[in-house]
Specification:
Structural class: mainly alpha
Largest sheet: none
Radius of gyration: 22 Å
Oligomer: single chain
Number of strands: 0
Number of helices: 1
């Protein structure tokens, strides 16, 4: 049983779109974590100066 070429093409397109979506979501999460992390680090540094 051979898979029709059209079906294969749509599957590849779906996979490509899924990869793009996952990549953008993951990238957005990483960026968000980076922003929050840097703010947290800055706040902790300020608190450290305040206490010492």
């Amino acid at each position: 049983m051979s898979i029709p070429n059209h079906q294969l093409k749509t599957d590849n397109q779906r996979l490509a779109v899924l990869c793009l979506v996952m990549f953008s979501v993951y990238g957005g999460l990483l960026e968000f974590c980076g922003i929050v992390g840097s703010r947290l680090a800055r706040a902790l540094a300020r608190w450290g100066k305040f206490w010492n």
